[in-house]
Design a protein that fits this description.
The complex is a heterodimer of chains A (257) and B (117). Helices cover 42% and strands 13% of the residues of chain A. Chain A has eight helices and seven strands, in the order E-H-E-H-E-H-E-H-E-H-E-H-H-E-H. In chain A, helix 1 links the parallel strand 1 and strand 2. Chain B is mainly alpha-helical. Chain B has one domain. Helices cover 90% and strands 0% of the residues of chain B. Chain B contains four helices and no strands. In chain B, helix 1 runs antiparallel to helix 2 and helix 2 packs antiparallel against helix 4. Chain B is elongated and about 80 Å long. Classes of the chains: A alpha/beta (257), B mainly alpha (117).
């Protein structure tokens, strides 16, 4: 069983759906760049050989009983990581777009900065960005929307290459946006006065398969995410005006209660 | 006018019968049939009680009775759709939490089996 091995323990989670062509390489590459760190592939009910290929490459697999979507799959990974006592979790997408060479830097940044979330950003520096013009426009739009809400600029709010510490893990285990979670998750954390940092990371083109975001879905995405951000802002505005309850220390796996 | 009210009466009766048969065959749970039964019952009463419908028309200031009946029906069914959206949202949240829990428990069971062997 993959359990946390002492303080500072890291789990890499890889949500995957029908990624049999890429998952083996992704897992192997993670093993290569962070040897000894456990990898958990969360299979969102793939219809191909994703599970078998991930196991062949040496990953542990959490197969979901039915399709939950990206947010549901990532949250399942967060829940398991929290139960197993991990201090840090880094999410890497199963399509091979995230470069596992950047994982140690995200991990170091989480430990050194003490902030709750570290985002691997495509746009903080010239990092070999591979995104379409439409997507870039969308990201620019969300940057502008998020700037006043977050109180600081965020360069790549849609990045799925994200590391969180145990405090954020506790929050996300209890509540996590289910569809298009990246931007909403950022707002949820910020409204709880948690901190996030960005570090420049390389993104690669998809090694196999196609993106699920079509032109029509992009419009739905924008509307959905805007609504989610708006709802979260309203929800947490009211909470912020109430007296804050005493913070509870995050519970570790194996502790009583 | 009378023809419209008669059609509404027939539709309400059909809806009542369909809902009751569905409950009897357990296609729909009793708690979710109540809203349908109330709505179809209300439509039946309104379509047969012309003075009541005229009273609503005067109260709302609408120009004619068929429009009053149509708007009342639309209002009732919109509220029902909203209620069902709330129920579906709760069910989806519960379903996701359950699916995640099942997956995590299966993971733990498999890990224990691997450990034993």
């Amino acid at each position: 069983m993959t359990r946390a091995r002492g303080p500072g323990s890291l789990l890499v989670i890889v949500p995957a759906l029908n990624e049999e062509g890429a998952i083996h390489g992704v897992v192997q590459s993670i093993h290569e760049h962070v040897p000894g760190v456990p990898i958990l592939v969360i299979d969102d009910c793939s219809r191909d050989a994703t599970v078998a290929r991930a196991r062949e490459a040496g990953a542990e697999v959490l197969p979901l009983p039915h399709h939950l979507g990206l947010g549901g799959a990532v949250q399942a990974g967060y829940k398991l990581a929290y139960e197993l006592g991990f201090d840090y979790v880094i999410r890497v997408d199963g399509d091979g777009q995230h470069d596992p060479r950047d994982i140690p830097r995200v991990w170091e940044k989480l430990k050194a900065s003490g902030c709750e979330m570290v985002i691997g950003s495509r746009f903080t520096e010239t990092t070999g960005v591979h995104t379409s013009i439409v997507r870039r426009l969308g990201i620019s739009f969300f940057r502008a929307v998020l700037r006043p809400i977050l109180g600081k600029p965020v360069h790549d709010p849609t990045s799925g290459f994200v590391g969180v510490n145990r405090t954020a893990l506790g929050v996300f285990s209890a509540s996590f946006p289910l569809e298009y979670p990246e931007i909403e998750a950022l707002v949820v954390l910020q409204r709880r006065r948690f901190r996030f940092e960005e570090i420049p990371c390389k993104m690669r083109p998809r090694s196999t398969g196609r993106s699920s975001i079509t032109a029509l879905k992009s419009l739905y995405y924008i509307f959905h995410v805007l609504l989610g951000v708006f709802v979260n802002v309203l929800k947490f505005e009211r909470r912020l005006h109430r007296p804050a309850p005493a913070p509870m220390p995050p519970k570790r796996s194996g502790e009583g209660g | 006018m009378d023809r419209l009210l008669n059609v509404t009466t027939v539709l309400s009766i059909v809806l009542l019968i369909v809902v009751l048969i569905s409950v009897r065959r357990a296609h729909i749970r009793v708690e979710y049939s109540v809203t349908w039964l109330l709505a179809s019952g209300a439509m039946l009463v309104l379509s047969r009680a012309r003075p009541l419908l005229d009273l609503f028309r005067r109260m709302t200031g609408l120009p004619d009775t068929p429009l009053t009946l149509f708007l009342m029906a639309a209002g009732v069914f919109l509220m029902m759709f909203f209620r069902f959206s709330v129920i579906i949202s709760h069910l989806r949240d519960d379903n996701i939490a359950l699916a995640q829990r099942v997956a995590i428990l299966e993971y733990h069971i498999q890990s224990l089996r691997d450990h034993e062997s």
